[in-house]
From TrEMBL, chains A, B:
Organism: Geovibrio thiophilus
Membership in a protein family: Belongs to the NifD/NifK/NifE/NifN family.
Cofactor: [8Fe-7S] cluster
KW Oxidoreductase (keyword) present: yes
Record keywords, A-Z: ATP-binding, Iron, Iron-sulfur, Metal-binding, Nitrogen fixation, Nucleotide-binding, Oxidoreductase
NCBIfam families, per the entry: nifK
Positions of the Nitrogenase molybdenum-iron protein beta chain N-terminal domain: 6-55
Coiled coil region boundaries: none
Keyword Oxidoreductase carried by entry: yes
Pfam families: DUF3364, Oxidored_nitro
Catalytic activity: N2 + 8 reduced [2Fe-2S]-[ferredoxin] + 16 ATP + 16 H2O = H2 + 8 oxidized [2Fe-2S]-[ferredoxin] + 2 NH4(+) + 16 ADP + 16 phosphate + 6 H(+)
Identification of the protein by name: Nitrogenase molybdenum-iron protein beta chain
Nitrogenase/oxidoreductase component domain span: 69-487
GO cellular component terms, A-Z: molybdenum-iron nitrogenase complex
From TrEMBL, chains C, D:
One MF annotation (Gene Ontology) recorded for this entry: ATP binding
Domain of life of the organism encoding this protein: Bacteria
Function: This molybdenum-iron protein is part of the nitrogenase complex that catalyzes the key enzymatic reactions in nitrogen fixation.
Catalytic activity: N2 + 8 reduced [2Fe-2S]-[ferredoxin] + 16 ATP + 16 H2O = H2 + 8 oxidized [2Fe-2S]-[ferredoxin] + 2 NH4(+) + 16 ADP + 16 phosphate + 6 H(+)
Name the record gives this protein: Nitrogenase protein alpha chain
Necessary cofactors: [8Fe-7S] cluster; [7Fe-Mo-9S-C-homocitryl] cluster
Annotated keywords: ATP-binding, Iron, Iron-sulfur, Metal-binding, Molybdenum, Nitrogen fixation, Nucleotide-binding, Oxidoreductase
Signal peptide from the UniProt entry: none
UniProt-listed Enzyme Commission number(s): 1.18.6.1
Pfam family, one: Oxidored_nitro
CDD domains: Nitrogenase_MoFe_alpha
Organism field: Geovibrio thiophilus
Amino acid sequence: MSKDIKVKDHITLFNDERFSEMFERKRELYENAATKEEVAKTLEWTLGEEYKELNFKREHLVVNPLKSCQPLGALYAAIGFDDTMPYVHGSQGCAAYFRSHFCRHFKEPFPAVSDSMTEDAAVFGGHNNMYVGLDNVYKLYKPSMVAICTSCMAEVIGDDLNNFVKNAKEQGNVPEGSLITHAHTPSFVGSHITGYDNMLSSMLAQVGEKTGEVKDRINVILGFDTYIGNFREIKRILGLFGVDFIILSDPSYNLDSPTDGHYKMFNGGTKIADLKDAPNSKATLLLQKYSTVKTIEFIEKEWGHPVKVVNPFGIKGSDDLMMAIAELTGKEIPAEIENERGRFVDAIGDSYYWVHGKTFSLNADPDYAFGLTRMVMELGGEIKHVLLTNGTKDWEADTKALLASCPQGSEAEVYAHKDMWHFRSLLATDPCDFIIGNSFAKYLMRDTGIPLIRIGFPMFDRQFLHRYPTIGYMGGLNLLNWIVNTILDETDRKTMYTTSYDVIR
Amino acid sequence: MSKDIKVKDHITLFNDERFSEMFERKRELYENAATKEEVAKTLEWTLGEEYKELNFKREHLVVNPLKSCQPLGALYAAIGFDDTMPYVHGSQGCAAYFRSHFCRHFKEPFPAVSDSMTEDAAVFGGHNNMYVGLDNVYKLYKPSMVAICTSCMAEVIGDDLNNFVKNAKEQGNVPEGSLITHAHTPSFVGSHITGYDNMLSSMLAQVGEKTGEVKDRINVILGFDTYIGNFREIKRILGLFGVDFIILSDPSYNLDSPTDGHYKMFNGGTKIADLKDAPNSKATLLLQKYSTVKTIEFIEKEWGHPVKVVNPFGIKGSDDLMMAIAELTGKEIPAEIENERGRFVDAIGDSYYWVHGKTFSLNADPDYAFGLTRMVMELGGEIKHVLLTNGTKDWEADTKALLASCPQGSEAEVYAHKDMWHFRSLLATDPCDFIIGNSFAKYLMRDTGIPLIRIGFPMFDRQFLHRYPTIGYMGGLNLLNWIVNTILDETDRKTMYTTSYDVIR
Amino acid sequence: MSTIDKKQAEDFIESVITQYEEKTYKDRKTHIEVVEPGQEKCGVKSNRKSRPGVITMRGCAYAGAKGVVWGPIKDIINVSHGPVGCGQYSWSSRRNYYNGTTGIDSFGTMQFTSDFQEKDIVFGGDAMLRGLLKEANNLFPLNRGLSVLSECPIGLIGDDIEAVSKDISKEIGKPVIPCRCEGFRGVSQSLGHHIANDTIRDWIYEKDMVGQKFEKGPYDVALIGDYNIGGDIWSSRKIIEDMGLNLVAQSTGDSTFSELANVAQAKVVLIHCYRSMNYISRYIEEKYNVPWLEFNFFGPTQIIKSMRKIAAMFDDKIKEQTEKVIAEKYQPYFEKIVAKYRPRLEGKKTMLFVGGLRPRHTMPAFQDLGVEILLTGYEFAHGDDYQRTLEYLDSTTIMVDDMSEFEMDNFLEKYKPDLFGSGIKEKYQTQKSGIPFRQMHSWDYSGPYHGVEGFGVFARDMDMAINGAVWKNIKAPWKS
Amino acid sequence: MSTIDKKQAEDFIESVITQYEEKTYKDRKTHIEVVEPGQEKCGVKSNRKSRPGVITMRGCAYAGAKGVVWGPIKDIINVSHGPVGCGQYSWSSRRNYYNGTTGIDSFGTMQFTSDFQEKDIVFGGDAMLRGLLKEANNLFPLNRGLSVLSECPIGLIGDDIEAVSKDISKEIGKPVIPCRCEGFRGVSQSLGHHIANDTIRDWIYEKDMVGQKFEKGPYDVALIGDYNIGGDIWSSRKIIEDMGLNLVAQSTGDSTFSELANVAQAKVVLIHCYRSMNYISRYIEEKYNVPWLEFNFFGPTQIIKSMRKIAAMFDDKIKEQTEKVIAEKYQPYFEKIVAKYRPRLEGKKTMLFVGGLRPRHTMPAFQDLGVEILLTGYEFAHGDDYQRTLEYLDSTTIMVDDMSEFEMDNFLEKYKPDLFGSGIKEKYQTQKSGIPFRQMHSWDYSGPYHGVEGFGVFARDMDMAINGAVWKNIKAPWKS
């Protein structure tokens, strides 16, 4: 087949001379383009100190931010429950965007309805949309639960979800006994992780039923963690401990479902019965902190059982995770886990000389940023910049304390509310050896020539990575793999035409 | 720390002008070097058709072969048994080489003794070396089994292992009842996979004790498979089936042991008792064919129970694996396995458009070569060349039949006994889009500019890859990951300064 | 012979839509029709609200205005004005290719947002917007203008972005164009196109802006309604040039502000995506008396037909050159592509549900490869789009407007096509059913599909999708 | 104050070696001694056979001849003559860097083998070798010579590679050098060095070959015994040049056949690795009357000392230039490196067990950084090497010849050094014990370690190893 006519697509087609000439002519005659000198000069200027200063003076404009809006996170919390329809009360375009965003990251379908509010709803309120919307949802999809969040429009006009849902039930828009949870998730407050927190805490509050009986079981909350492999990994770990558990929001069924010839909208997840019974577990373990602020507060206050929050990345984080499980459950840490720890440490021992002394700048959501910062330092890597758009004060303080505790963090700068255009200035004026970030950070790689290690969300331009775990010792091995082998790959590329292009490294 | 004095090592140091000038001067004044024109002309010539023809006419010289020698494979078979000391009867340098080779690949210690034969042994035979050698081995390491193979010297002078071992036992060089297995593994016959086969089949023959009772259990033999993750993966799979099994040679304990502050020479593996009892299993399943020719023959003839051989890569291969387990054990294929199949197929569906129509040339050991060839075609990739140094006639026939069965194989060429210098000619005169090969194939990438997907043995210049499984559906996901994400990475590099540098792919 | 039996199909459709809530049922009934080749009128209702609680594939006006009209113009800064999400989700997702240095003289793959916070909702965002526009202009001095694309809250809190834009435009001496494309307006992306077209009209042509001066000639044409997905407009441009014409302005793919203004300077305006840009072409004809012509550069049949139609607007030199290039260069290439791919695709059946124009534009290209269309329809088409789709039918076809995913699942299950072409949201669920899929908004990260080279890529990709080896392996062999 | 207590150490050693089989015990007893600074004689026995069944770190004569002497010469084709393995395992594993185009004018990282098959064992390999050498010369015409490195079977089956080499050399008009380095010869790599040196002597100098003609001057020197691991010889060369000397030939790292021949053309031969190359330097002195000088370019103390020693062989111009470059360039750099790393390394303890020279060469560099040596020894040293090691001691030290891995494990367990420097086979088991490790044969994929820049890399790497964050995390925190 390969010897037939070969078709060139955009990746190579436009390199043909005919096209280059065409582009050049167009630029010259019609585009009113800046001169090449102007462009070169401006480019150089944007990479300098003067520009950096100007750039950091920005008060209003945000360029290439590292955050999305609340309802996205709310949908992510919702998709983790069995037989549950995520529902966006607001404009239909919002739902379309959320769904596309997730589809592009997970390469999986992401069901969610919207009640398609338009101009008239702006005037009269969105209650009618919700009544018809819920009616259709139950008729078409027969979910066990509907999880409603809001997008901007509903929030700006002040729709009252609680009231609407009550009415819908009373009016008979929905079947008797329908379970509907709802959370206000205004896009102009916080970010996607806030929405996750709002939705999850609302679900716990609205569905959980405390009976007084305490069950020998723990709840586990992973937070806004898009590495689907982690949901399987924590189950495997808890299985080794022999612990009974409930994961509160487990999207690993819906977002990693088989291709077997039959599309199923709902593939599993946390059972509704478990959600109801969660307050009666003897403790709750959380694997994220900054994406679950309200949730933690709620559980501590309302369920009153022991709560542990760990950041389960790297050696220290995984140690914390294992010890937290042991502490909450009274179980011994299994020998197999200890063996895995040893194998992870072993892998670090085998490879850390490629990381030690290299400098790293990071982009991520706060919980990942904290964990990766610590893990990079565990490998001997030095941190230059940790830059977030949705960092919180707590995160900032925690991260600064972490960096201060370690020589590899001594020169690091921390930014909680900056964007990737700020980051570009930082990288251009104070370069590091490697960037860690999501797919959008590829622009930074292009602009600064600094290689990118792809860890984060969204990950649109690589496949399968989210299927691997990143937590615990075995997840740590994957992170290590991505970090070390990217360094090795870049080293190869740098040395390919020199004698340092070693076969053994 | 990063702001201190920065040390440059070879990766960047010699780019400094001072060194370039020095190199240039040395070349000009002292090296008696060919002129740059001569070099350029010769380089071009070596990449052309005329050279290819000359190159393929070689009858004697072998350049950059893709095989190692028998005892290497024998040691690999031996290291998979619990409390077993691999023993090389021959020159000590051989053992040093085998051990280094494995250490570089696995980044793990690889214990093996040699009996250090020298000139006098050449004259008088190596029996005395073996007597003292065995004595020391038992005194120092107290193994439960010693597995002896030979290197060239012992084979050329015709040492008789069977006799030597008998004498050693009779003379009391070893403790009463010592278990010593031995295999002749001449380096001038076959390759490392032949040695694996010889050692394993000898162990089965020398240690296995057929009792007549048939146990509800199967034997599993993975062959010369250096992806340690596969040993864990097959155990996981068999665990899901609920099958009782013995893995015959399981190096995953010795070659992936923890760093916990205590070095242990022997970390586990197939129990000697299991090796003894293996003939009494009800069936044997083999996951390689070309590395276990003698072993298959032996089991079929001597143990007389059902034997199945599958090549467990990709969809078809994993299907075969699962059905073979089901058939041999009478168990149903578990729903979880079916789910994993669906997830693997799903991942292929999500990504195959990056592979479809791309052309691939492969280098590997025969079992991997066969499996990867088939899997690449399952992804829609087209095969150009499959080139091995240690291919067998069977392998060649099987591979040709496979290629003929699929349009993606219609233009492929198969070479069973060529080397990587032949491969260079093929790639230069008839380029493909991607090479699949081991670390040495990086030279082909440099010489031809064709990107390399690293799968195989040895893998010296990337870390951890051997810790992942490659077999079954979940192993397939790793292979898919390496293939697709390498393609994506190369696409990024090719398009970085064009508009095709997409964030979503 | 048609695969679709009209009566059976109608019964099936009825069985599906009766499952809706009653008003929804009544509404949906008017959006679906089984049509026949030769049929004169299409009765499908369109451009109506999607019903709440039904998973629609549609987006919003902002998506139409930003993603389609304003977004691809490379030398202006498009500010997503409002909360962070809308700009974030639409960032770099349309693959409107352009040449230029991003962040310096081009801004296509950047996300500029005002990142509204609660205080902005409460106190209004106008003051902030002023500051923002100036910051943007300072940090990106080579921009040729800015647009302000309103998100939902802006219209609801009563901000006056027009006033702000006027002021700043004066202050910085560059166009600043406010675009009221709040997502709640209208029923789909389509109103966004219209609104954005109106802003182009009002803020460019009504102000008589012109672009870079060029030497005018008799063969000057403009090409609009091509968004350069995967390089579409470039392979189209090549055809125009091969015909001997002069392409003086293109929009909005790989377009500049200058070209946008200069569209009206051409002798003829060629429009590819009629749905999203017809407003402008009609207006230009009216105001400047420049005629426009719709054309279709998908697949050999339509490419050749369109080339002749365009050539017919010009003199014999152009006509001859057109015939020459067809005969000498294009036809032989098309034949090779068809020879390779048609045998692999002949008789395959597809469903196509995309945007507001592409189904009827790509159907002939599918037919050139022997592929039958079982079902088609549009996310956001208008009545005339459906009407004009009829002419491309060559078998009984189900026509659906604003198909819900519920309907889609049922159609896929029932008819098991060899290919479904739609959007990213539809892709993975289709594939789970074992049905090959191509994203026909974004060319599934491939492209171009327009023009001569584009047809090769299109044919290759459809073959790849339909005949992908993986689809033979959907079922576990132990499940019989 | 020494960390090692002599009496305790001796008792401990005894307790370890008594576990051997009796003859082995007696033998090993003579290979280990606890030595003190100032001690005049070292009684350690060396260059004896390793005992069977004891895991030795040693390799073979082939490894010494190919890996060290012939392998690094870039423009000759080194044929590993015999079965495939020896060449395969030693392929690209020594990191002898070179400049050149591999496969065209340079062949360092290629594996040429005759891949002996059973028939070759039975019928002999001479005919095959003839064909092979001609094939190699035809396919790689820019080679400047070939070597034939025998593997074990060659010596055992009685092939006459000398005759073949002579014939082919005549036929192709290039040197073809047969080297009888069968792995069973001798007790370690060391004999391989000697044999290979002898072949250089016999086939180059005895034949009065000369290399590229160059203009001779008073400052011409040759540098031998540097294998350019990670670029060592390049940073050494830089020092030589900085001193105002002319380096006219180097060997064998990044060396050519021409340079090898021209070593004898220099005014002085500088030898770095005395162990592997002293045979040649002695011979050249005898035959050509060219004096030789041993030097050491590891670490500030020895670099400066060596530079002065070398300068002393020349006139004042060189001496002045040497002092100038030390004072102005090297000393300030050394101070910076020491200032950064010594505080991090002061008082750390290491064990070093490598090759035949490096321990005594690198000890002063460790001492420059404040690191104490607890134990050292050589894989394949001779008596004089041990003798000369004494002068570098600054505390009580255990000296072990041909240390077995059994002994090594025991020493590591007992003394828990902060660093162990040895080879790849020893690396991972050391690390399992939680003890940092550096491969001191190959610089652990780093380098150069020679010369001024090399000291920086050395210091950085030792810090990295010893103070690597991972070593704090060996123990699970729940294990107290």
